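Worked problem 6 (solution included).
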Amino acid sequence: MDEEIPGRLSPYVRRPERALLPGSPAPVPLRRRIGGFFLFRFLTALPDDLAGAVAALLDPFERAARLAGRLLHGPALRGGWASGAGRFALALHGFHWTHWQAETEGPAGMFTARRGDGPGGGATVTARPPWGRGDPARGSHTAVCALRRVPRLRRRPGRVDLVFADGSWLALRMGTRADSARLRAVLGPARSTAAPGAAASRISGCGPAGTRRRVDARGTTQ
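Solution. The predicted structure is:
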């Protein structure tokens, strides 16, 4: 599928530290951090900008709602920032830091999925910045991944989970139900994040040293 599908990183993925972001943006000065505090913004906006003052007061409630949503939806990234999922998420953040954008709802991107060649080939997902669509000079990040099976109580129409070769995974939020369905169709059937070969080891009955064991008719291991 060469068509680009708009989406974004799940808003329930915890934001990385600034030092981990590609390009290592400069730390925010103390004066700017104080100016971004909701109470300070409320006091400075109150005389002339009533709407801005109200928005500043709503900021703590929005943060509380985001925390409640994270508790309800569960983790949206597993494996750490050094894993395949973490590098994919950092690449999305890096697109926006390049253009001095830091979004609180998860950085957006354009996603292209492609099936691997041959029966054993894995699918790949390429993420690009949302601006400059069709420009070959845009930055991109490509990773081999598959579709992760989302627990039933945490499934959402726009949610698509990607699991990577090292077992790490992350959640994306697509714009529409149709966009998420198209991405799932290319990646194929969802699978769990259980370690490959674990089930085969249980079925074959191999011992810890790799010795094959036999099970008699009564179920006794020999």
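Discussion: The chain is about 30% helix and 15% strand.
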